[in-house]
Amino acid sequence: MATSGSSDFNLNAADLVEEAFERCGLELRTGYDSRTARRSLNLLFADWANKGVHLWKVEQVTQTLAQLSTSSAVGTYPAGTITATVGASTNLSVGETITGGTSGTTASIITKPSSTTITVTVPSGAFTAGETITGSSSAANTTISADPSLTDVQSTVDLLSVVIRRDSVDQQISPIGRAEYLHIPNKTTQGRASQYFFDRQITPTITIWQVPENSTDQLIYNRFVRIQDIDTAVNNADIPFRFLPCLVSGLAYYIAMKRAQQLVPVLKAVYDEELAIALSEDREKVAYSMVPSASYTRVT
User: Fold this and answer.
1) 46 and 94 assigned to the same domain
2) Is the whole model's pTM more than 0.85, yes or no?
């Protein structure tokens, strides 16, 4: 008998929900059933973000650094991109602070991708659509069309590796904690960055030290981002096919907690097993070696 010749099997949200309900011995009958199941799916994705890095959700970001002068440079950057649309960016300066005339909100300009867009640091508040913004150094005025979206930055879960690129040469920089950064005596020292502090707020930021001594160095990092939401019944899950079994099992377990409590122990056991199998396979297969630390070496 001939095989199908296809290998594109997938389930949209409606199929996932129907399968999960069947595992609970239930039938999907109402719009509320579908809505509460989609809510459970999104909660399940949020829980997965706490269970390790998913390789299919790792992406690389390149951020050009910003220096205004030898005494002023941008040291803290969003963990992603914040783009604002303005009337004209030509007379604004990279590295300077813009202030909203109505809102009083401030942000620093990182780059000017086009004549009507700028990328900025995390704003101190919300810009008012159509308000005039003024550059702190250039004194240039223009308008901002809307408060820029923070969605791209807020999708960042964690950073995996970070380098500084100068003249096409990459140099790894080391992570430090909040206390270590606080203990740096002079945080405005300019030079080639060697350390970074990743502040995992709702809108996460990356603070580098030393702060940039030019506007050509690039901060390049691999970040782990959140799984996309399931918003409608026709959406496919933002996962590789290998994770479909544990996704269905997890959804069945979540539904059982609300509708079929007697099945919770069995469904949880199945979910835990299938998730562990999927996570164990979602890894880089590279050569591995162990090197003893000098601090544990003892001569007798």
Assistant:
1) no
2) yes
